[in-house]
Amino acid sequence: MNRTLKRAAMACLAMFALLMVNVNVLQAVRADDLQSDARNRRNFYERYAVERGRITAGGKVIAQSVETDSKEFRFIRKYPDAKLYAHVTGFFSPESADAIEANENKLLDGSSPDLLLRRSIDLFTGESTKGANVDLTINPKAQKAAYDALRQSGKRGAIIALDPKTGGILAMVSLPTYDPTELSGTDKGKVFSRYDELAKDKSQPLLNRTIAQTYPPGSTFKVVTTAAFLEADSSRGPDTTVPAPQRLTLPNTSTTLPNYGGSACGSGQVALVYALEKSCNTPFAQIGMDLGYNAMNEQTEKFGMGDQVAVPMSVAKSDFGPEEDKAALAMASIGQRSNRMTPLQMAMIAAGIANEGTVMKPYLVNKITDAKGDTVEAAQPDELKTDAVSPETAGKLRDMMVSVVSNGTANLAQVPGVQVAGKTGTAETADGQPPHAWFISFAPADDPKVALAVIVESGAANVGAEATGGHTAAPIAKAVLEAVLNK
């Protein structure tokens, strides 16, 4: 009898040991594989079991979860004005997410450690868990104005606007756009098929051009070259005379760099402010060569180029380009060659000048509140670069950029009763397409409330190069400026 009991006990012990081994293998070794297994429907349904928090901007709901009659999919995601905010909100698909939906996912679905107290209270009271709400810095009027103005151009492009004193993003528009609702459904077949269609579209509607795409900045970059020139000698100013030949022979080449259309820039010797107003190429190419690669590159870095920035979405790094020869430096100094900038970086340059030389870290999330409205986290504006330029240099640049709008190529950006500072630009492309049209700006010049960058891809068709920034991009910027300033 004792032997039988012992054998039974040993068998039970062995089975228990095997069970523990199996449990540990499942939980520790195979957990990730099982969780990602396409046959695991439980995780799929759990994504829709919790009421995700709202995403709001300026008191306007731009993403929310709506309860359904389905037992399997209790909540689904809805996006009012979906295309308008697509690159801001992103989407919430059966297996992935994008933009704010992805970067703030743990807060939105309620699983963040920051919401532990709220979850504990809900457990005690018996209330169902809800995600936190994410409030953004976006100004709905500015967003709508930017979207409408860029869409009317009929071109691809991007607009990003900042509060220069805080770094808060007031508008983020990229065209073409898409409908995130189509990628946030519960039918995997339809969602994945639609995503593949958008991903293969040559116009790249899924691409957020404001932060994920770099472009040659063209003549807008001349404000950086001007900044480096002024910083090198504090005695220089808007009236400083600079050489402005009709054509500039690039060192060690037989190539000559003209001003637009081969036109003259004054009499060959002009005031710095005049060169910026008319966006002459030869003075700034010569200035860049005289200053040297290191001084030019360092000036760009002082505006934030090369820093890893997240808003919270990751931002592509801008790059002045590698050190090559003097001819390459001349071209990079007028925004061509290997010089590549995101629209956000160019907006940060405008904002840094507007903010007396201090560049603030750009950010998109204003505050996080739990389901009861209590603040979990609030934005704390922070400085990215405190000495992009001195306050004195910033003042000189401001005055010259005001003159560009008042007397130069950007007259179509003028806002009645407001002093606007800006710089137009066109950027040649390597693919034989018409040049891109650029404009950077801030206003009011004496107390800036908004700084922005506009790019219209291939926007220079059938229009003079510098006139393109003035005729295509500047009016778009004006609409955004008015939306922010005319409250």
Summarize the structure.
It holds the Pfam family Transpeptidase. With 487 residues, this protein is α+β, with helices and mostly antiparallel strands.
Termini Cα gap: 93 Å
Content of β-strand? 15-25%
Task: Write down the overall geometry.
Answer: elongated
Summarize the biggest pleated sheet. 6 strands, mixed
Low-confidence stretches: none
Order of neighbouring strands in the sheet with most strands: 3-2-1-4-12-13
For the CA atoms, what is the radius of gyration? Answer: 28 Å
Describe this protein with a few key phrases.
487 residues; alpha+beta; Beta-lactamase; 6-stranded mixed β-sheet; 5-stranded antiparallel β-sheet; 17 strands; 38% helix; 16% strand; PCN-bd_Tpept; Peptidoglycan D,D-transpeptidase FtsI family protein; Beta-lactam/transpept
Characterise this structure.
With 487 residues, this protein is an alpha+beta fold. Helices cover 38% and strands 16% of the residues. It is built from 17 helices and 17 strands. The strands form five sheets. It has a six-stranded mixed beta sheet with strand order 3-2-1-4-12-13, with no helix packed on it. The relative contact order is 0.12. Keywords: Signal. Residues 157-482 form the Penicillin-binding protein transpeptidase domain.
